[in-house]
Amino acid sequence: MSEAQKADPGLYDFVPYRNRSKIVWPGGKKVAIWVAPNLEYYEIDPPANPHRKSWTKPHPDVVGYAHRDHSNRVSHWRMADAMSKYGFPGSVSLSVALCQHHPEVVKDANERGWEFFSHGIYNTRYTYGMDEAQERAIIEDSIRTVRDATGQTIRGWLAPALTHTPRTLDLIAEYGLDYTCDLYHDDQPQPVKVQSGKLISIPYSLEVNDHYGFFVYNMSPREYADTLIRQYERLAEEGETSGTVMCIPLHAYLIGQPHRIGPFAEVLRHIAEDGRAWIARAGEIADHYYDHHYAEAAHGA
Amino acid sequence: MALDPAYLEYPKRREGYDHDLYPWSSIFDRKPVAWPDGKPVAVWLCVSLEWFPMTPSDTPFRAPGHMQTSYPDYRHYTAREYGTRVGFYRLLDAFRKAGVKASIATNGAIAERYPQIIADIMADGHEIIAHSTDMNGTIASTLPEADERALIAQSLASIEAAAGKRPAGWLSIARSESWNTPRLLKEAGLRYTCDWVNDELPWRFANGLVNLPLNHELSDRQIITVQQQSADSYAQQMVDAFDWLVKEAADHGGRVLPLHITPYIMALPYRIAAFEALLQTLAARPEAWFATGEEIVTSWEGQQ
Prior knowledge:
The complex is a heterodimer of chains A (301) and B (304).
Chain A: H1 3-7, E1 31-39, H2 62-85, E2 91-94, H3 98-101, H4 103-111, E3 115-118, H5 132-150, E4 156-157, H6 168-174, E5 179-180, E6 190-191, E7 200-201, H7 210-216, H8 221-238, E8 244-251, H9 252-255, H10 261-274, E9 277-279, H11 282-292, H12 294-299
Parallel strand pairs in A: 1-2, 1-8, 1-9, 2-3, 4-5, 5-7
Antiparallel strand pairs in A: 6-7
Chain B: E1 41-49, H1 74-98, E2 103-106, H2 108-113, H3 115-123, E3 127-130, H4 145-163, E4 169-170, H5 181-187, E5 192-193, E6 203-204, E7 210-211, H6 220-226, H7 231-252, E8 255-261, H8 263-266, H9 269-283, E9 288-290, H10 293-301
Parallel strand pairs in B: 1-2, 1-8, 1-9, 2-3, 4-5, 5-7
Antiparallel strand pairs in B: 6-7
Helix pairs in contact in B: 1-9, 7-9
């Protein structure tokens, strides 16, 4: 890769937000809403990756590990029940080894009709430094593990702990995956340029991710709830012009804490009752986009 | 160069945890817990009472709240002492006024230096939890086992000498443990630790030691010092948490709301009124069972 290619790997075309062709979601809805719970497993004593440290403390990092373990003992069900109550399925960013460690959590999500995509093997194993064969191995492991545990074939990818290589997007497209959640350049799905096959980006979100809300912006639970409602109201309004996407990325050990879940449940109620939202899974958003908009966006510009 | 092939090997990828410290279970699958008098939510007040030597140690790590400037750091030393001399007595008065008992997680050095404060805690019927020696007594896997064993023994001996009673509970500084800690705490005769924040009810390590989770997310340190929210917001969040747990308890059995308080954070003149009002609000709620850590552990153990 030349320096110029590295500076801009050419992931997508520049397409300004103004004057785009109109996306209309099923039922004439203005904004496609998807909820993305991260169902993760963090190892207590992971091997070192030379490019990134996992825990900041000598192992065991008791608070770091136990905080995340809260998801798999307590807060997954608290979060999932709030979602089910208001009719929100999850599109799960899955540490696929959770299928081995805590199959009860994966089974619960599967029985609720949630969709799974891969978030790597563990959130303590990073892609940095992998060669192509190693990266293929984690993709193949992800496909096989999720199929064995849930009967589902994964269609998307969110890199483990957001660690990528320059070949990740090409590889997942080659394996037939339909969408990536790793690109944050837009509020609508967009074609991604890959060497073979097709790939689109589906807006995920760092900015309204509960982790950013609580640990980057230090919001209170009610401030975070207000943030989600403002995000929703604006995207629903702009969706009149061309349909938008809003993702609510979650971690049960954050949103499912007892002081946070109540205000969050009120956000779900607000969106469910509003009427402008298409409450969907990531794969359904991808299907609609591929069926109605991909060809024009990929070739018509 | 590719990563070491071992990076793609997963020797602990198996059903259950990648360690043998404690077994997995979901709080929603366990036999429901019933607290005394049919109260749905145990409210557990836990106060950290700490002495920071003006000579901070970074071995194995520097405690949160410790000295920050070049020696002598009068500013942080005295601001922490303010919590012990003034703020803590505001909290004791607030507990009296609300008619509630608390657990005081106390450095051994507090007992050695200020026996009066131990007498005042005991006179009001609060529990003392052992909270290391002083704020240089941090624990991590880089601490030699013999040193850790000695630290635990010294903490317990200092508190027992001043209080006339050996603590049943343990709280590590910053909840930080080594691989050895659960074994060493059990060896020292402790009943429970509060370090693991992975649950909202007590649970047992494989060696029989109990963990009573002291949720760090609900602490004044996290909400006020780290996340920079107001005391009013903190109080609102605790009431929101209480209300949620009351609802959840109706379907799933008793719950615990742990309030982790630091005198030099919460007991400042401009914050204490919000905390006092929170105590009054919760004390007036018929669903609340105010209990010490040991009382919660005892009630829970009696139902297992």
